[in-house]
Amino acid sequence: MANHKSSEKRIRQTVRRTAVNRKRESRIKSFLKKVEASIATGNKSAANNALKEAQPHLMKGVSAGVLKLGTVSRKISRLSSRIKQLAA
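The structure assignment produced for this chain is given below.
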């Protein structure tokens, strides 16, 4: 249990930030699921649009510190290569 006023404040901040980060992670996962679903259906234009819609949210996750840049870059790269393969 917190004994100092500053540690009580840090606990409040951590709780608030955790809630924000969880919501952000959930939103990112939802966008990625939309991309995966459109790839599964084989609709290239829908998959492309879903990926374009997901990219800003992924990068916001990076700037917020929820995800690492390398992880997001890898995900975007792999998804875009899968979308390209849909035409072939």
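Interim note for the steering committee: The chain is about 85% helix and 0% strand. The mean pLDDT is 94.
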